[in-house]
Amino acid sequence: MKLVVAVIKPFKIQEVTDALREIGIIGITIVEVRGHGRQGGHSEVYRGAEYKVEYVPKLRIELLVNDADVDRVVASITESARTGKIGDGKWWIIPIENVGRIRTGETGPDAV
Amino acid sequence: MSRGKKLFLTSFLTLIALIAVGQFHHNADPTGNKTGGTADFLAASGRAKVQLSQSGVNALANEVGHLHVSINFTWLLITGFLVLFMQVGFAFLVTGLTRAKNAGHMMMMNLSSFVIALLAYYAIGFAFQFGGINLVGGTGNIGGTGPLNSLFGHGNAGVIGLHGFFLQSGNSYDVGVLAFFLFQVVFMETAGYIIIGAIAERITFAAFICAEIAMGAIIYPIYGNWVWGGGWLSQLGHSLDLGHGAVDFAGSGVVHATGGWAALALAMLLGPRIGKYRKDGTVRAFPGHNLGYVVIGTLVLTFGWMGFNPGSTFGATDLRIAIVAVNTLLAASAGAVMAMAWTNWKWGKPDISMTCNGMLAGLVAITAPCAFVAPWASLVIGMIAGVLVCWSVSFFDNKAKIDDPCGAISVHGMCGAWGLLAVGLFADGTYPAKVVGWNGVPGGVTGLFYGGDGAGQLLAQAIDLVVGFIWAWGATYLIFLVVRRFVKMRVDPEVEIEGLDEGEFGQICYPDFVIRAETDTGITHELDAVGAPGTDPS
Questions:
Q1: CATH number assigned to the domain covering A2-111
Q2: Residue B109, SS3?
Q3: Contact assignment for B347 to A51 by CB distance below 8 Å
Q4: Rounded to two decimals, what is the model's pTM?
Q5: Cβ contacts of residue B129 below 8 Å, gap of 6+?
Q6: Whole-complex ipTM
């Protein structure tokens, strides 16, 4: 069991969830975050004073995935979230010790 | 048939029957030609017939006079209500220009400025300002205000009025006095809330209350007496033979410059917001949290200004109101466009908040000259104001290093002063009518570009400007040098950083949102290295 995490551009979320649904992945968690990668934001001017827009709004999505599906999920996210411009984001994988469904009490791969 | 259907049918047929029966009455007047006529005159005057006798004619004249005054009362009150609505506009404007963590504090200041300053003005300020207005006859349109007739330093040297305290003394319980009071109190309120723009995000509520009491009772009304209450500035036309004396139609000086310079004094005493100036002296931007509010506020203020300026004729029987209104809108638009152009040229993109400030700058600047100038001149006055405000915001932020979160000093102080001078330049002599005159000097108000005593008028305006600045800035500064010995003026650094909503009021304006937008605040650097907040000299 793995947690696939990705940080993507906010307007891409519908495309990503649609693409995941097409390969059979339904559950997802979304958090509104801010951040930047290597480019470090950009500058604007407010009433004559320059300020840096350093932390750009993004969405962080998390999916619990069985080991066998990880590659398909990563490929799906990457293709649907890419624009080719700066700020497209990153994905990473976290190994998960255990998972449980709260309503039914199932645990392990059945609960994913 | 079911019960429901029976009930419906019965009700429906009853309704049809009632309507049918109603058709037999024929007293309606759909065109309006038959409503209001001789019968109403007879009812109002208590007479049985219209007669061509002296008493019959007297009755007609009496009713005409009453109507004349009534339409002006209506005008005065309705435009006063429009000015009251400007309170809403300003609340939106300044709340949008400041940070979300202080939104409750901003709104509370706007709300409480209204009520506290009103009570202070009711108790003391109105009497100071207008206690002697009847002596110079400035309220003919509403039938005069006889009870207000006591001026200390009467004649050419009036300094303070002495009738009308609590609207009780000197028999001020009078319809004319109260209508006049309503109109004047909402003007005072404008000066009262202007200061909010410069003291925002760091003043304590206690000190703010003191500021509003001071504004309503002392700062506004005394200078207001000198210009509008028959005081010495208005009499410069007699005492020093300078045009019509200080001329300020709706208050570029009395209201806006007073508010702006008082704001300057308070901003200087308070010091800048924590983190506003970096150690190397550069300015840190604190973007407003809602530019939508800023625009809404600006447009609401513009709408309210349709009461502020045209209402200052005190009467709808003075048809110059049409020209006043158009002049006001022209200046507003010119100011906005110039600010848009200037910011686009200077900073690469048209600045939304400065465009709003530009519109307001035009409105402030036209407020004194609006009744005396031609439409083309209003355009020029507004354009200059639009550029002036942009330059001024930059100046106070970068050169003078006086933190003015909403640009109050620039919009109201600088452009209010420009408005006063503009009268002395552009007034074209077409208003008021020769016989009526202004400030007791016959003839239309004339500025430098139109000959006559234009040079004298300009000098009177300049004197008005300088005196207004010294008074508003000086009185505020002195009062607060005393006040701050007893009342804490600035909130603690922790409160300022966390947001005044919680620290001063225990209530957050936006409790459903996590407000952590600020990233570049310099707070850690400034506090660690310097210690005292906002007093970093560099």
A1: 3.30.70.120
A2: helix
A3: no
A4: 0.91
A5: B161, B184, B220, B221, B222, B224, B225, B228, B229
A6: 0.79
